[in-house]
């Protein structure tokens, strides 16, 4: 039996970082994001030799062993192993699964587009299809979150799992005891104009978001009420409301202005979010027509999103091509994770 799945990557438009505990538990987190036509892919096929084999083709890592009830979470492909363990334990009565799991992603780890979490969602959706598991959208996203944050002890927030599962434009609310995904119906002409004004640029630097997230956790836990990092997170959260209002009103210029102030606030939450290379690229972009910009995800590298008047877009792209990074073409998608049987 063969099943396949694909889950879309996302860009955060506003509010990123406020979905991380304990900030979201204490103050509530709010994020506006949208998925792109860049995906994480998974194929699962059953085997008849009692073996389990994982192959992450994009990062050229493999793992093979006997099909056991539980695989040790060490060395390579920890996420693949953790997903297998959880599915076997909770949904297959502890019976091992003899399978191949083959994966690849359109974006590298550390891209800032939620690639790791999106891959978890894609793999889980393939298992759901294979075993006909009774998992709704919220169930799938929450399970993906638990596997990453609890089983694997990886630092991070919650938005990526929900974005990949639901897809499209979403305004998300994160609280200690619940997550609410509010889908936004954005007219096609608004989507087209927004696409025409955004340049997506990969800095060429993949980053580990752990240090940045740890700084944000420290700020959220601070007993000092005047902690500037905590105030900055409050400002980042407020930007999500402002960005949503501009989007719904088709105020793209307003969205660009919100992005500009939100990026300044975001940089105040951790000294690791920006660096001299990122600032150099940012200044180059502004010198060639970018109205505002920010790094997607936790920061420190990965993808940079820029607003630019469409008539200045090609000169900006030409200038960016002289750097060590890459400009990526994209379109928004309005669907989340999907899986099918071959």
Can you walk me through this structure?
By secondary structure, this protein is α+β, with helices and mostly antiparallel strands. The protein has 2 domains: 2-185 and 334-341, Ribosomal Protein S5, domain 2; 188-330, GHMP kinase, C-terminal domain (Alpha-Beta Plaits). The chain has 11 helices and 13 strands. The strands form 2 sheets. Strands 1, 2, 3, 4, 5, 6, 7, 12 and 13 form a 9-stranded mixed sheet that branches. α2 runs parallel beside α3, α2 (78-91) crosses α4 and α3 (115-131) packs across α4 (137-151). The longest helix is centred in the last third of the chain and has 21 residues, at 228-248.
How much helicity do the residues have?
Answer: 25-40%
Quote the beta fraction: 25-35%
Tell how many strands the DSSP assignment holds. Answer: 13
Q: How many distinct folded domains?
A: 2
Number of DSSP helices?
11
Mean pLDDT, rounded to whole units? 92
**Overall CATH class of the largest domain:** Alpha Beta
Assign the structural class, choosing from mainly alpha, mainly beta, alpha/beta, alpha+beta, or little secondary structure.
Answer: alpha+beta
Rg for CA atoms: 20 Å
Give the biggest beta sheet. 9 strands, mixed
Quote the distance from N terminus to C terminus: 8 Å
Stretches where pLDDT is under 50 for at least 5 consecutive residues are: none
Shape: globular
Topology as a string of helices (H) and strands (E): EHEEEHEHHHEEHEHHHHEEHEEE
Question: What is the CATH topology descriptor of the largest domain?
Answer: Ribosomal Protein S5, domain 2
């Amino acid at each position: 039996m063969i099943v396949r799945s694909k889950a879309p990557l996302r860009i955060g438009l506003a509010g990123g970082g406020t979905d991380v505990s304990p900030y979201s538990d204490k103050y509530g987190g709010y994020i506006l994001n949208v998925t792109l036509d860049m995906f994480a892919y998974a194929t699962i096929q059953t085997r008849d030799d009692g073996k389990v084999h994982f192959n992450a083709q994009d990062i050229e890592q493999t793992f093979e062993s006997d099909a056991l009830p539980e695989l040790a979470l060490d060395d390579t492909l920890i996420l693949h192993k953790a997903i297998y363990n959880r599915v076997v334990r909770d949904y297959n009565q502890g019976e091992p699964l003899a399978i191949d799991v083959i994966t690849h992603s359109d974006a590298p780890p550390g891209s800032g587009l939620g690639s790791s979490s999106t891959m978890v969602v894609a793999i889980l959706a393939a298992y759901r299809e294979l075993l006909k598991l009774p998992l709704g959208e919220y169930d799938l996203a929450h399970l993906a979150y638990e596997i990453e944050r609890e089983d694997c002890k990886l630092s991070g927030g919650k938005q990526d799992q929900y974005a990949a599962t639901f897809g499209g434009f979403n305004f998300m609310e994160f609280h200690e005891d619940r997550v609410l995904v509010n889908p936004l119906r954005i007219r096609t002409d608004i989507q087209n104009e927004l696409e025409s004004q955004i340049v997506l640029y990969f800095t060429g630097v993949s980053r580990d978001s752990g240090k940045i997230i740890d700084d944000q956790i420290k700020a959220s836990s601070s007993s000092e009420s005047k902690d500037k990092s905590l105030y900055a997170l409050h400002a980042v959260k407020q930007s999500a409301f402002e960005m949503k209002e501009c989007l719904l009103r088709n105020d793209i210029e307003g969205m660009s202005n919100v992005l500009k102030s939100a990026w300044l606030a975001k940089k105040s939450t951790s000294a690791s979010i920006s660096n001299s290379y990122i600032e150099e690229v940012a200044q180059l972009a502004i010198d060639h027509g970018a109205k505002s910009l920010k790094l997607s995800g936790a920061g420190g590298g990965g993808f940079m999103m820029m607003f630019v008047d469409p008539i200045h877009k090609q000169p900006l792209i030409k200038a960016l091509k002289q750097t060590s990074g890459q400009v990526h073409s994209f379109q928004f998608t309005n669907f989340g994770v999907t899986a099918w049987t071959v």
